[in-house]
User: Fold this.
Amino acid sequence: MSITPYRVLVGPEGYLPPAAASRGILLPEKGEALIEGAIVPEEEAMQAIATKLLSAKNPFFFPGPQLLWDWKEGVALKAQAVKKLADLAGARVIPMPDYRPKYPMINPAVEINPNHPNLTIWHNKIDVCVFIGVHCHYANMALKIIRGGTSCYTIALCGEAGHEDAMISLCCMGMPELARLTEIIQSMKGEQAA
Amino acid sequence: MSIKVIKPTAAFASLLPTEYLELVADGPYASPKTINDLGTFKEIIAEHPHCAGCGVALGVRLTVASLPAPADTLIVGTAGCSFFGLAQAALNYSCSAFGNQNAVASGLKRMLKIRYPDTDKDVVVLVGDGGIADIGLDLTLHSWFRREKIATIMVDNEVYGNTGGQESGMTQEGQVLNMAPKGKNFAKIPVFELARVSGCVYGARVTVASPKKIGRVVRKAILLAREVGPTYVQIYTPCPTNFKFPPQQTINIAKKAEEGYYSFQEFISDDAQAYWEKNFASSTM
Assistant:
């Protein structure tokens, strides 16, 4: 019996999409990454991220609490690097300052919440988004909701093990990896301009 | 937990929503605050979703303003009206499954003691009457039996407010509610008395009509829980929506209750009294 491998594609996949892990998607090792559920070399995923960001109509970065709050040494520098990356990619930034559920509702023009990220995606008509600095369990939940209810292409730049539920996911994202991604976007922009 | 966790990174500070910036600039962390300072700092974001005249919102607000060390305090909550306000407060807040709050708080307190042996970390349970007196009564009592060093504060609106008005164990006998059309047919659960016989070293019963008393008893409960043992504060927080009185009457309703069945009461064990006199006798609060 053959089984078609599950692919993590742009939604809307429908109410309650499965966790990609439950459909056999494995996390990458250091030096690897995920593109739509398939493990690829990290460099290939970085090229794909650059292409997606530079060809997007309305790309956004969603920095999470780990980058928004200056809670330990090195965070401020990383935040600066991420802001530079977003600016270079022509992406706007909407913060995810914390994970508290907000009632009656958040203002989707100025923030995103992991409990209903679709509101921010829909309101701002976002076609490509990048998660960075969001704690993994909340990122997984938000990425799944986005895949379930929107047509937004999701990218996760994860400092830990990566995210199966993102369409492209890097893992072990530190300053060198951020610098490399910035370099790739810079050079791709240069090629486009030429 | 450190004051650093509420300092925005420079790169993204300008992008944070206004209420976060206000909480950072004017929250209760920078210097100790008391009830007397209310109105001069931001203890809860303005757009909380409580009903007009909500006693729970006022109870949460007064409690938050009474914390002796807000930056080193972890509030543990659970489902219910109290959660709506707490989720918006400028505090370390953990929401537990309904009724689990005292068990969660016990674990957190022990973990914080191991992680920060040289710093006082206050763990304060702040939940409604449903969470403490009904769904979490067993876990609450057991945390008291075990003498966990946590302060438990009940904001008692005597009803399940945000689910349409079901009776709770703390509803008064005979009270008619939306979902209790025949009236409640048993008496209010005596949680305050249970606290006294279950190991609490200090307890106080108060209403939102007496803010300064709340300031005093909440601070005392938290400081005693740090060193001596479990403490309990029960605050009457009337609910205009389910008890169908005009929102501007909340304080009057609480005042009337304080003159009757919800009179101010306090108990303290001998060891807690001795500790208090030794360490805080000169305290003005």
About this structure: Chain A has one domain: 20-193.
